[in-house]
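Catalogue entry: protein
Contents: sequence, C-alpha cells
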Amino acid sequence: MLLETHDLKILTALQRDSTISNAELAKSVSLSTSACWRRVRILEEAGIITAYRAEIDPGACGLAFHAIVHVQLIRHETENFSKFISTINSRPEVLDCFATAGEADYHLRILCRDLDAYNRFLETCLFRIPGVASARTNLILREIKQTRVIPLNEM
C-alpha cells in the first residue's frame, strides 16, 4: 500500500497518542471525521496499524531487572532454531528477540522483577533449550532512548 500524506499524518498522530478521538485526529490532519475514520480503518485492514496499547513504567510495577542477553547456539540445526524460537515466544520476561549476524545468533531484551527471577529464567528456561551454547548478559544500567515510534518523516 502506498502511503499518502494524510496517512503519514494519521500514523504520526496515533503514535503520539493512540487514545485521541477520531474528531481530534481528523482536525489535526485536516480531514473530515468520516474521511479520517475510513483512512484509519484502511490502515488497520492493510496491517499497517497492528495494535493500540498503553505504555507502562516497568519500575512502577516492580520490574527492576533489565538486560540484553546475547545467545549463541551450538549448531545451526532446524530443530534447535524451532525449539529456541517457540520457547522464547512463550516467555513473558522476553520483551524482544532478534536473530542477528555476528558473534551472537540471538539478542534478547529481558525484563523481570530482580536478579533471582532472572537466574530462574536462565536455569529453568534458557539453559534447558537444546542447542544453546552460551548466553552473555549485559545489564541495562540506565535507559537512554527507547521508542516504538516509526520515523515516518524519513519516507
